[in-house]
Amino acid sequence: MNIVPIAFAFDENLILPAEVAICSLLQHAKETTYYQIYVLHGSDTDLSGFEADTIKKSYPHCDIVFKNVGDAFQTAFEIRDITIPAYYRLLIPEIIREHDKILYSDVDVIFRADLSAFYNNIELDDAYVAGVDSLAQFDKDTRLYYEKNLGISAKGVIYSGNLIINSKKMREDGIVHRFMEHAQKQYRFQDMDIINLVCAEHIKYLEPSFCVTTYFTDYALHQRKALNAFWTEREINEALQNGIVHYNGQKPWKGYCVN
After folding, report:
1. The whole model's pTM is what?
2. Please, which residues bridge with residue 105 across strands?
3. Which is nearest to 81 in space by CA: 209, 258, 254, 216?
4. Are strands 33-41 and 62-68 parallel, antiparallel or unpaired?
5. Are residues 26 and 123 in contact, defined by beta-carbon separation less than 8 angstroms?
6. SS3 of 220, please?
7. Could you read off the pLDDT of 88-126 as tens digits, one per residue?
8. Which secondary structure element, helix H or strand E, spans residue 94, and what is its range?
9. CB proximity list for 81: less than 8 A, separation 6 or greater
């Protein structure tokens, strides 16, 4: 059996989207794939409505383990609709010590393929994390934010919604402690900015199918040539057909949106 560990983080407000995301993950699992699913939550989070037992009964090729992060990040900066659980991914190397490498996903996603190839075939080496280029350099305001406010290049900034985490390397280098030092700062993109700042020059870049955002889809439909500077036509088409759909803008449970 091919064991693939993956972590999610959410509170009682996102139980239904989490259940949909996890079921889509399990529906597309190969017969040889066994998902070890971890749910990160705060000490005051009420997840009693989360149907873990029902999911496990319906999809026996998985287990679901709850990990309480306590009161971590209770005073961390919040903006837009992104809340405290978004920061929990930063604790994964210390909270989930059972694995040296682990996947992470937000719950505003739909999985359309098995993830074992990403987990088994991507070698992280000295990279702390692997993710998909966010194309931040294409947006003038975002580019200026990274270059002027954070002092880093917008080129190469990755999304934090779908990650492969090198927990072993992070533990060895004390990266979680460095993450925590940034949590109080008022970054526009919160955990995403922290990951890109702390892990700069130790990032591995993945094909776009690992995180198909509304931004990517818009460019694929209307400004395809811009994407060709990053990925081949095969990679772009594979992402559109089978990639992880990440609703990083409008949420499908709130209104009509791309994908």
Report:
1. 0.94
2. 162
3. 254
4. parallel
5. no
6. helix
7. 999 999 999 999 999 999 999 999 999 999 999 999 999
8. helix 92-95
9. none
